[in-house]
Automatic annotation (TrEMBL):
Protein name: Glyoxalase/bleomycin resistance protein/dioxygenase
InterPro entries: Glyas_Bleomycin-R_OHBP_Dase, VOC_core, YycE-like_C, YycE-like_N
PROSITE patterns registered for this protein in UniProt: VOC
GO molecular function, one term: dioxygenase activity
Top-level taxon of the source organism: Bacteria
Taxonomic classification: Bacteria, Bacillati, Actinomycetota, Actinomycetes, Kitasatosporales
Domain VOC: 9-134
Pfam family, any one: YycE-like_C
C-alpha cells in the first residue's frame, strides 16, 4: 500500500499530573523508570508546562507527565486507563511494596483478567499500572 502509515515511530503516552513530585516518586523511585527529560514552566508559550518524561533510554516509548501551572487539568482516569507492563515472570512482592511506599495503592482490576494475570497498582494521579505475569506474545 502506498498510503500505509509507518507504525514504528517513537510512542509518547502523555497524561496530566496534579503533582509531578509524587508522580516521579512513584514512576522513578518506585518502579525504576529513568527520568529522560524534565522541563520547568517559564511562562513562555514554548515552555508553559512543567514536563516530566520517564521510561528507558533504549525503548521506543516514554511516559510524559504534564502540569500546567496556569490552567490545571485534573486527571480523569477510568478503571480501564491502563499502562500494562508484561514482565513474563511472577510479580515480586518487593516491587509492589516499593510502589506502595512511593505513593501507589494496590487495587483490584476492573477487568478480572488482570487480577488473574498480574497486579494492578494505582499511581498518585489515579491511573492504573498493571504488572502482568504474562509475556507480550501471549498477553
Amino acid at each position: 500500500m502506498s498510503d500505509a502509515v509507518d507504525l514504528t515511530p517513537h510512542l509518547r503516552i502523555a497524561r496530566p499530573s496534579r503533582d509531578l513530585g509524587a508522580a516521579e516518586r512513584f514512576w522513578h523511585d518506585g518502579l525504576g523508570f529513568q527520568v529522560l527529560y524534565r522541563q520547568a514552566a517559564d511562562g513562555t508559550p514554548a515552555h508553559r508546562h512543567h514536563l516530566l518524561m520517564l521510561g528507558r533510554p533504549d525503548a521506543s516509548w516514554h511516559l510524559e507527565l504534564v502540569q500546567d501551572p496556569l490552567a490545571t487539568v485534573e486527571p480523569r482516569p477510568t478503571p480501564e486507563d491502563l499502562l500494562v507492563l508484561y514482565l513474563g515472570t511472577p510479580v515480586p512482592d518487593s516491587l509492589v511494596n516499593r510502589l506502595e511506599e512511593h505513593g501507589g495503592r494496590r487495587v483490584r482490576a476492573h477487568n478480572p483478567y488482570w487480577d488473574s494475570w498480574g497486579v494492578t497498582v494505582q499511581d498518585p494521579d489515579g491511573y492504573r499500572l498493571v504488572l502482568s505475569t504474562r509475556n507480550w506474545s501471549n498477553g
